[in-house]
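question for whoever is on the cluster today: can someone run the full assembly for these? two chains, 987 residues total. i dont have access anymore since they changed the login thing
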Amino acid sequence: MGEFKVHRVRFFDYMPSAIRTMAFNSQTERLAVARADGAVEIFNFNDNFFQEKVIPGQDGRAIEALCWVGHRLFSAGLNGEITEYDLENLRPQYTVDAYGGPIWTISSNSQGTQLAVGCEDGTVKIFAILEERIQFQRNLNRHKGRIISLCWHPSSAQIAAGMTDMITIYDAETGQATRRLLVDRAMGASKNKEVVVWSVGYLSDHTIISGDSAGKVQIWNGLTGTLVRTYLVTKWDVLSLIINASQDESSVIAGTSEGTVIQFQFISSTLDQHDKEWVRTRTFRNHSHDVSALAHTDTAVVSGGMDTQLVVRPLLDKVEKNTQESALRKIAFPHRSLVGCAKKAGLLLFQFPDRLELWKLGESEGHGEQHTHTHTLGEDHICCSALSACGGWLAYSTVSSVRLYRIQYNKTISINKVPKLPKELRSVHQLCFSSDSSKLFASSCQSSVIVVAVSQQECRYLHTLKHKTGEWKARMHLLCASDDGKWLATANTDCEIHIYNLHKMKLHCMVPVYNSCPTTIAIHPVTNNLISVHADQQIFEFSLVQKEYTQWSRRLQTQGLLSLWLERDTPITHITFNPKNPDHIILHDTYMFCIIDQSLPFPELNAVLWNQMTLKNLPVSQRIGQSHAFKICKIFQHLMCVSLLEDLSLVVVERPLLDIMSQLPAPVRQKKFAT
Amino acid sequence: MFTLCLFTGLTSDTGCASCAAAGLGSSGSGRRTRRRLGCSCRCCGRTQPTFPPTAAGRRRARPPGTHPSAGGRRQRPQQRPQTRAEKQRGKASSTSKTADIEKPTESFTLSLESSDDEAPEEVTFEDSKAEALRSMKQALDTARREKELLKEKRRKRQELFQEQKKRKLLSADVLEEIDSASSKKQKQSEDEGEQEEKPEKEGGDGKKKKKKRSGKLANARNLKGKYTVTTVKERTLASFQQQVAEEFIRSRLYGPGTCRTTSNEMLSLQNKKGWNKSAAVQFVKKDWASKEKAKAEKLKKRWLHKQQIPSC
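^ ran it for u. tokens below:
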């Protein structure tokens, strides 16, 4: 197979940010996750939990609550603003100031006509949801103390609001507070500490379920205002609560500061249907830190919190056991590449939310030198970045602007900004340099690609590549240029891949649409075949010249990929090729990197996928019989990028999960036996 | 001032005539008359503190039959003729019903009272209670008076300060001028930006300070051109509120009282309880806890050094 000199890079200090809140849209099967740095990520639950879209964050946008209304996404934060997001262009569409101080919670009624927000000053404000905007309708009666959580009754007639030491039920028509439910404080030493009702849920039979900071989940009768049942589930706080409102409201999930997720179900203790009550059923311990966000889908419980991992736990009474469906999924790393590599120059570009770091790989065993370029452009975070192959150009974009820099080295690296950029380069979602570094491709709004020529003197707008006239498509999230400069491939989240001919500057063809979103695409330097890997781990090879799938690809589809390959839970984020051997395709995901040898046969269905160790132990003559096309190496974990430089040395950028966990905020102290 | 004769209950200025006639004498030798500033209780003969013969005093007089000891103990119910004070109050002369029963003891008690023994005056419970109440009331009165005095003083001082402040501030015209200038949006040079920074930092204090500063600046006429006064951006107030909210969350989740530990401990415990048991993380990973390791190294060196010194 070959021996490579490996640059093992561990100085990428990637630190994901904590998950603050999430909201699941059962119509579109999308989960919106808001992080502490203000970024909003959309996961497609239909497509192997692929992270489809990422809206970059902003300093000061501290999102506390998210809410789906139909296909629209609203968020509210501690900056006092309600933001609606444009999910096509991946940016905030507009913000409305609620003028109530920091907003703690947002919730829409079941008809989708009104939005209620709970503010710091103790008011619940009702906004009417109109076609393109929201409009302030009125305030409900003001209370002393901040409103931490809110829930509408399914009939939209009442609102239950959780505050400090009590829960108030408002009549949504009149705005009067009809009932006040007083929540007990914690027993023992913390009797003086006020109890905060972190989350509240309202069922259609007027039962109110609340989780508070004393560690209790309480079930109230909303009509009489009395406490029905108390469950003391933890010594710390119960931070989040969710009801499976879209189904039959029979299951409630609570997330605690300890990292446990507890399920309560409305079932009867005997076999007959009478005398149902809320019983604590399951406890999941999948987190090490606070669980501050929960979502309840039809078949699974999704939880996220301070340990920055998204955990999807299917409920075994809804899915079949021991299948791919019932597996626990942990999503810890982003589903796109944050590392750019300049193959000819040996430079690495690390993309952080608020800055970029440029590193030069060292020749010897030693470390790389660094030249950090820190950007503080207002408050917007970086959306995407690109490094040219020769290492001479660097570009990045935010939601509002694009910047281009020229990199020069005499003895040290110097980075100079290119001042005037064409005005067409405004809101760009993906950037890519051509292989000769003469052109910059940028995917912009209305699903078009802007081609800009970069040179020593200036940056000149060349052309805009569009689809057929007038057709509007989703924004492209992947861009790839061929080595000979003739082809450009783009992929969007509607699973379409378009090929443009750069010599004629027009659309060449469209790859047949596969129902799973492509996670990465690349054009082979020699054969000009497009390799695409999708979210369901399928691999395709498409010949650009002949406009059809290649023979190899058809054979692979006929044979089928091994189940071990298909059951991997992290997507492939980068494809690269070996200049010395055109048969090799190098792919990687978080836990492994794989070299696919197109000249070798595919593995049989009952063959072992990871057979590198066995092959090593066999004598050379027998190896040929046993070897198959997939050569997988699992030495390096967790991989952020694997790339092959021009001098045939492998660059492996790792970020061990332990390093991330060591920098997380403080977890709770649990006293365990024998420790 | 009158003299009350205990035998007859008659009051007189000079002495009880009837007693004098009876040879008992009035005040003076051999006998101590109870000269108290007070009026006597009709039923038991105890004197009570004098109340001026005002309406209030009359009101405080007990209606017949309501003596505190009337229902309870039979102490010294006496059928006594009314004193002058009582007459003034216009009370009926009927006394408690217990008078009949207690009559036989009357003479006995009278004699007790009239006896000229050296025993200290018996202060009855009611008397002492009354005394205590009186002194408490006096104390309360004095305290109240003092508080009022203090209030008055404070009010006067406050008024004085207000006046001084008014004198110190500019006239309303000048302030209006400054306000109108500040409401215009201007491009700021660096100097102005620096000047703005200061008000921004103190933005939380509100506008009072700004007025003072503008007042001082405007007074220094020669500096007027270089400074501009602009209102503090709304953003600082919003971010202050945001900080307060973030502090609230932080103190509830990570503040005192929440038992939190470090990641190091958590990972070390995982190492200890895991399948492959290993040491705490700061020993497993080389670059952790470098400060503690350096300290431990130094300590080790010092200890070794100490060990070597006595040996050589």
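summary bc i know u wont read the tokens: Residues 258-331 of chain A form one domain. Chain A has a mean pLDDT of 88.
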